[in-house]
Design goal:
three-stranded mixed beta sheet, CBS-domain, alpha/beta
């Protein structure tokens, strides 16, 4: 099975110059904790991922450091140059990359690098379990970008 078949195609996006407060409000309004930061290519009018912004990024980088969020833009806080999966990649390859990077979500791009969706471990838990088999899929991150998503044999996180 390829990655493009499982990715969520309605990815919520922002641009790096957008106010951080607006991005946080978008997360609240959409009930999500992950935004893909995109740049539109003038030559072909395609959106390409240039970063990701999570609710955790905002908490760790802004709130915990008591920084005024009104002074920041998405580009000040986002994770730049995110790892991506190609929609035609085998799912196992994308899962290995997610494990290597310690992430639970991965932007998915088409053959021209355009954003086509987001692959999420939580959303695809059953399929991930069947693909990963009895192996443990541990996505514990190093350092302060932590968080864990562990899939055990029974498919529990």
């Amino acid at each position: 099975m390829n990655t493009g078949k499982l990715c969520r195609t309605s990815a919520v996006t922002v641009e790096r110059g957008e106010e951080l407060i607006r991005a946080a409000q978008l997360m609240r309004d959409k009930h999500i904790g992950y935004l893909v930061v995109v740049a539109r290519d003038a030559a072909d009018d395609l959106q390409r991922p240039v970063g990701v912004l999570t609710d955790r990024d905002i908490v760790v980088t802004v709130v915990a450091r008591e920084t005024d969020p009104r002074t920041l833009r998405v580009g000040d806080v986002m994770t730049q140059s995110p790892s991506t999966a190609v929609d035609s990649d085998p799912l196992e390859k994308s899962l290995r990359e997610m494990r290597r990077m310690g992430v639970r979500r991965l932007p998915v791009v088409g053959r021209r690098g355009e954003l086509v969706g987001v692959l999420s471990l939580r959303r695809n838990r059953g399929t991930v379990e069947r693909t990963a088999g009895p192996r443990r899929l541990d996505t514990q991150r190093a350092g302060d970008r932590g968080g864990a998503a562990t899939l055990n044999r029974r498919g529990a996180w």
